[in-house]
UniProtKB/TrEMBL annotation:
Pfam family, one: CO_deh_flav_C
Protein name listed in UniProt: FAD-binding molybdopterin dehydrogenase
InterPro entries: CO_DH_flav_C (IPR005107), CO_DH_flav_C_dom_sf (IPR036683), Diverse_Substr_Oxidored (IPR051312), FAD-bd_PCMH (IPR016166), FAD-bd_PCMH-like_sf (IPR036318), FAD-bd_PCMH_sub1 (IPR016167), FAD-bd_PCMH_sub2 (IPR016169), Mopterin_DH_FAD-bd (IPR002346)
Family matches, as PANTHER family: OXIDOREDUCTASE (PTHR42659:SF1), XANTHINE DEHYDROGENASE SUBUNIT C-RELATED (PTHR42659)
Length: 337
């Protein structure tokens, strides 16, 4: 690990000033991702800006929805009564990730900005355009079982690893950020980006901006939702494919529906055309299969992850069926007997 300075910000303004200091500074919140990356020499900040004392640790009512401060821990979000009652898909997604200890330390802002779990990204001895732009991509034609099947580029095929963000995509949350020129909001769908020819950039957040909060809209789809996570082990593993599905039904007819996929792209993956195919249709396996077929028709698998295409298709159908069937659907209900 390289030597670095440490400063603690007392206000958001101080944090923004410190990050713009030119010392290759990084914010540190829970530290559960950043410190690992520093130990692997993937991140080499000259300065750490500790933001843990900023007043961004509350969940507040906001325009009929909820404003989740960037420093609210993953555990505090998942177990907040308002989130459990009104946005259960978010609780469920968070509880499907990491472990209790990690969720107690990890923050909302840090979860949004956690970096890919591509093996090559963590291994200094291999080429990786995300870690070292222009060095190549070890995963293309290499070991790529866990990699993306949608939205890849010839520079990077990494996936975004967060569970929380998949639920936020289905809920159409927004991210409130602040920088030297003030505050702005970014729809979750535009916060994470595809790799294109700049795979080193995971998000559209400016280098001098801080995440202040994630804002949830009023509609939480508490009646019909699911977060389905498929992985190699039942706990302590990242998703091979996950699906957050939310729905509103009128009788057996679908009035509104959204679904987002995790583990398959550089960002939570939505296909709005497939979602529109559900509207006004009966909530049946045939309806869900047609939408799933539409999504996977755009898949471009790599040498080792062709299995993800069929896995994603089946996961979409199953998640939509679970959402249509209604609650309760806690993670513990999903244990394999
Ligand atoms: C063993 C292990 C298993 C895991 N399993 C899962 C899993 O199954 N599913 C899952 O979703 N996640 C999983 N995680 C990842 C975990 O959720 C993240 O490490 C965590 O959410 C990061 O939050 P943090 O507060 O610790 O971020 P930090 O490590 O402090 O920061 C991460 C990044 O975010 C930036 N940052 C933090 N806060 C802000 C802010 N407010 N504004 C701007 N930038 C900010 C930092 O500069 C850094 O670049 C796992 C992690 C570990 C170590
Ligand atoms: S997939 Fe992306 S993160 Fe992984 S080696 Fe290639 S460039 Fe690096």
């Amino acid at each position: 690990m390289n030597r670095f300075d440490y400063v603690r910000a007392g206000t958001v303004e101080e944090a923004v000033q410190a990050i713009a200091s030119g010392a290759n500074a990084r914010f540190i919140a829970g530290g559960t991702n950043l410190v690992d990356l520093m130990k692997y020499n993937v991140e080499r900040p000259g300065r750490l800006v500790d933001i843990t004392r900023l007043p961004l640790d509350r969940i507040e009512e906001q325009d009929g929805g909820l404003r989740i401060g960037a420093l609210v821990t993953n555990a505090a979000v998942a177990y907040d009564g308002r989130v459990e009652d009104r946005y259960p898909v978010l609780s469920s997604a968070i509880l499907a990730g990491a472990t209790g200890q990690l969720r107690n330390a990890a923050t909302t802002g840090g979860n949004l900005l956690q970096r890919t779990r591509c093996y090559y990204f963590y291994d200094e001895g291999t080429p990786c355009n995300k870690r070292l732009p222009g060095s190549g991509c070890g995963a293309i034609g290499g070991v790529n079982r866990i990699h993306a099947i949608f939205g890849t580029s010839d520079q990077c095929i990494a996936t975004h690893p967060s569970d929380m963000c998949v639920a936020l995509a289905a809920l159409e949350a927004t991210v409130r950020v602040a920088g030297p020129s003030g505050e702005r909001t970014i729809p979750l769908s535009e916060f994470h980006r595809l790799p294109g020819d700049e795979p080193e950039r995971d998000t559209t957040l400016g280098a001098d901006e801080i995440v202040l909060s994630v804002d949830l809209p009023a509609e939480g789809f508490a009646g019909h939702h699911t977060y389905l996570k498929l992985r190699d082990r039942l706990s302590y593993a990242f998703a091979l494919v996950s699906v957050a599905a939310v729905m509103e039904l009128e009788g057996k007819t679908i009035k509104a529906a959204r679904f987002a996929l995790g583990g398959v792209a550089h960002k939570p993956w939505r296909n709005e055309e497939a979602e529109r195919m559900l509207l006004g249709k009966p909530a049946t396996r045939e309806t869900f299969s047609a939408a799933a077929d539409r999504v996977v028709s755009e898949a471009k698998p790599q040498s080792e992850n062709g299995f993800k295409v069929e896995l994603a298709r089946r996961a979409i159908v199953r998640a939509l069926e679970q959402a249509a069937a209604g609650t309760p659907q806690s993670q513990s209900d999903k244990r394999i007997a």
